[in-house]
Amino acid sequence: MGHGGGGVMSAELVQDVFAPAFGGPALAALSDSAAIRIGGVRLAFSTDSFVVRPLFFPGGSIGDLAVNGTVNDLAMSGARAAYLSCGFILEEGVELSLVGRVSQALGSAARAAGVEVATGDTKVVEAGHGDGIYINTAGIGLIPDGVDIRPQRVAPGDLVIVSGAIGLHGVAIMSVREGLEFGVEIQSDCAALGGLVGTMLAVTPDLHALRDPTRGGLAAALNEIATASGTGIEIRERNVPVPPEVSSACAFLGLDPMYVANEGKLVAFVPRQDADAVLEAMHAHPLGGQAAIIGECVEHHPGMVVAHTGLGGTRVVDLPIGEQLPRIC
């Protein structure tokens, strides 16, 4: 299970097994989506699979995730998603009414994100060889001229912006899966981020890097960017927006909110001179109202993420080994 968690074990699986077997320059970048060129057109291309349990949770469903997860991967390249493929893997015995509910949720999410489901596939596996419904989606989108968003462009002096409160999705999944009560219903932040990225690009096309902190949470996203760019990253924990209910739930469960998955947030690496204007534009968007500058990129300790704690100390924020909360997307 750890190999699917978005941490060290996942990275080793990709780098040691998949990348050498497949090869190719597009894959070598290992970004959320591949930036490819066909003729004179620049496209972003991505695929993702969804095995979340339970299928419906506060704030969303596997159908919503199947759209938003792939749309967001495309958005992290600055692309506006255009088309999705959709593959359903159904376990023998799953109720058709449940398949219908998931399909309706997926269709509604696609319409809300402004993307069309253009093709698909269905497979059925024997009872006991699945978990009801798994979904795979792949997507393509156009990258606007003048946009070059990739981790290798991150440089010392860039400021780090997170688009809102972290940890909501992972805690929402865990609460319903384990029947835990935290005094208030915690809802997933599942949302399509294409519109927010468009708002940011309208301020400046010179965004250096974007990442949606899903599996492995904010900590994994920051570590991936630090490693790919060869810069150090320093954040201030007090500036990271963590809702009180998430903080309390994580304390109860023995989790660090920095490592808990999100499905409707992004972390942006922005040139210092543009950061205030980008942040102001994010605050005006429904999905960026709680956006905050949480840190900066530095020359020292390259490839490492360091947090300044509320007590005045520092700690290294490592890449997680595996997954704290399996089956969250």
Automatic annotation (TrEMBL):
Pfam families (UniProt xref): AIRS, AIRS_C
Lineage: superkingdom: Bacteria
Coiled coil: none
Similarity annotation: Belongs to the HypE family.
This protein's name: Hydrogenase expression/formation protein HypE
Gene that encodes it: hypE
PurM-like C-terminal domain: residues covered: 156-300
Species annotation: Streptomyces humicola
Domain PurM-like N-terminal: 32-143
